[in-house]
Amino acid sequence: MSTGASPLLPHVSGRRRRTDKIMRGLLAAATVIALIPLVLIIYYLLYKGLKAWSGSFFSTDPNGNFFGDPGGVRSAIFGTLEIVGLATLISIPIGIAVALYLTEYGKDHWFASVVRYFVDVMTGVPSIVFGLFIYIVLVVSHTGGSGFAGWKGALALALLMLPIVIRSAEVVLLLVPNSLREAALALGAPRWRVVWRVVLPTARPGLITGSLLAVARGMGETAPLLFTVSLAFGLTGNLNSQMNTLPVQIFTDITNPRNVIVTRAWGAALTLVALVLILNLVARLIARRSRMA
Amino acid sequence: MIPPETTSKESDAKMSTAEGRSEQTDATPDRAALGARQGKGHSVLVKDLHAYYGQVHAVKGIDINFSPGEVTAIIGPSGCGKSTMVRCINRMHEEIPGARSEGEVKLDTLDVYDAGVDITAVRRLIGMVFQKPNPFPTMSIFDNVAAGLRLTGSRGDNLRERVHKALRAVGLWGEVKNRLSSAGGGLSGGQQQRLCIARTIAVEPEVILMDEPCSALDPVATLKVEELIDELKQRYTIVIVTHNMQQAGRVADSTVFMLDGEVIEHAPTEKLFTTPDDERTERYVTGKFG
Asked: Is B53 an 8 Å CB contact of chain A?
């Protein structure tokens, strides 16, 4: 209470108070600066994209007409869902299997270390490289009787998603307490049953979240699809043909001289962001639900 | 895979059904037939056992004979190799990367480390309870107890009955019978540990290893687990690692004092605590070191 500083409880000096305030201010400023582009992106997407949204935007395909109504993005939405769906079916089971090998069997074995190293390298490979790889191997050779095809794009996306799935799944599986594995093993359970009935169920929420993040990442990729799926107008369920996808449609629309088509690109971009957002929300919901159980 | 054990295991299963609240009518003849074996259990013989973690020599040539149907306590300062030794008995030691062991462990006449032995069969015969209660968080109370049966693929037809019996055996039945389908993680620490013991005995092992089972529990829960150990020794050979010398005094028939990876003294509990042969034992049990 007295003004005199006691030797046991000295007052905080004015300089320290000022430094503290300035540093806190700097941290807050950095946060605001980082948020500016994010807010601007969302603002522009909504401002420009919402103008394009309408009933026919979602219910018609682009028609390629040079005059008049250019059509909507229905085929692009379905194309993206089909291709990403196939890529998911390929990459997630394989990715989780690799992560299981790394955490449950390989551990510190040299081969596991090599796999881990290559997975890290693959995470850093630019997405266009996966597109080029599939282009050279599958498109140029007309494998499956087609040049550009949806399933080839799905393969390129799967390659891109695989390291993300492996890495996130490995982290989650390592979080499963070892005491649970030991408890199950000590009961006399074979290792595969321990993995199947104890490790995987315990890690499930994290595995789902990680996988859906990889799916969201794959959904927004343009480069791997440009060289592998190319572009089409119409809606098709045939994965062995060229298909329309949201990222590629945005890519071609935005450079078009017609204003209507540029607006359609903004609408498609907003649609893509909305799809990813929905996916993330679903992931969180599932994760929360299985944690409750 | 283990001819002498499989037969006694089957009979043991029948025996414990007979000892349950006897829902089965054909239980009586079995009980008579097995009366001789009852309260005897199986012996565990550890001979010249060495255990290593990489370069670290944690257990240095141990010989212990665990008598059938008795509770044997292992005491000693931290890091003296108590837990390591116990984990060698059901071959859990080798689960740790870089860990290995040498020497002999015999369950009656069966060599646990024989190359032809199925390691999962060993662990089914020699159950284990860990220091921290570790119920499976994704499973209900019922499923936790059933886990051992399901995980070993030996679920049989009377799963419900066996789960209920195991819960009764650990005195948890009254506390959980109305919420068998709620999560096992929602129980108190002491209840969780008894749940884990129920999970272990549901598989009907011959020997139960307990690695400081009460160190995470409060005194009341500890007392319950100790009473349970006292009952379980009617049917099982029990090895319990403990830091708590009073606990060893309360539950154990004989006690082993370990120091630096070696057995210093193995004697009936009362003798070990009152008139030990070795001076180091005396210093330890009187609290003069460790």
From this structure: no
Q: Do A107 and B97 touch (CB under 8 A)?
A: yes
Give A180→chain B minimum CA distance, Å: 6
In the predicted structure, residue B207 carries a pLDDT above the cut 70: yes
Residue range B119-130: average pLDDT?
90
Inter-chain CB proximity B130 and A183 less than 8 Å: yes
Of B120, B127, B199, which has the smallest distance from its Cβ to A190's Cβ?
B120
For residues B121 and B135, what is the distance between their CA atoms, to the nearest angstrom?
22
**Residue among A107, A182, A201 whose CB faces B130 most closely:** A182
Q: Does B130 touch chain A (CB under 8 A)?
A: yes
Tell me how far apart the alpha carbons of residues A1 and A271 are, in angstroms, rounded to a whole number. Answer: 62
Taking only the tens place, the pLDDT of each residue in B136-174 is: 998 999 999 998 888 887 666 788 888 998 898 888 888
Asked whether the CA dihedral B219, B225, B228, B232 is positive or negative, the reply is negative
Distance from the Cα of B287 to chain A's closest Cα (Å) equals: 32
pLDDT for B22: 35
Give ipTM to 2 decimals: 0.79
CB contact (8 A) between residue B150 and residue A197: yes
Question: CA of B270, closest CA in chain A: separation in Å?
Answer: 31
Q: How far apart are CA A179 and CA B193, in angstroms?
A: 13
pTM: 0.79
Q: What pLDDT, on a 0 to 100 scale, did the predictor assign at position A162?
A: 94
Among candidates B154, B146, B251, B153, which has minimal Cα distance to B200? B146
Residue range A137-178, pLDDT digits in tens: 888 888 877 888 888 999 999 999 999 999 999 999 999 999
Residues of chain A with pLDDT under 70: 1-5, 290-293
Q: Which residues are CB-contacts of B58 (< 8 A; sequence separation ≥ 6)?
A: B51, B52, B81, B84, B261
The pLDDT confidence band at residue B8, using thresholds 50, 70 and 90, is very low
Q: How far is CA A28 from CA A16, A25, A34, A269, B223, in A?
A: 18, 5, 10, 31, 55
Residue by residue, DSSP assigns B32-84 as: HHHTTTTTT---EEEEEEEEEETTEEEEEEEEEEE-TT-EEEEE-STTSSHHH
Contact A182 B134 (CB under 8 A): yes
Whole-angstrom distance, CA of residue A179 vs CA of residue A187: 12
Retrieve residue B282's tokens.
Answer: 């005396």
CA dihedral B26, B126, A192, B138 (to 10 degrees): 80
Residue B290 has pLDDT above 60, yes or no: no
Strand, helix or coil for residue B182: coil
| Number of helical H runs and strand E runs in chain A | 12, 0
Angstroms from A118 CA to nearest CA on chain B: 23
Q: Any bridge partners for residue B241, and if so which?
A: B74, B211
| Interchain proximity B92–A186, CB inside 8 Å | yes
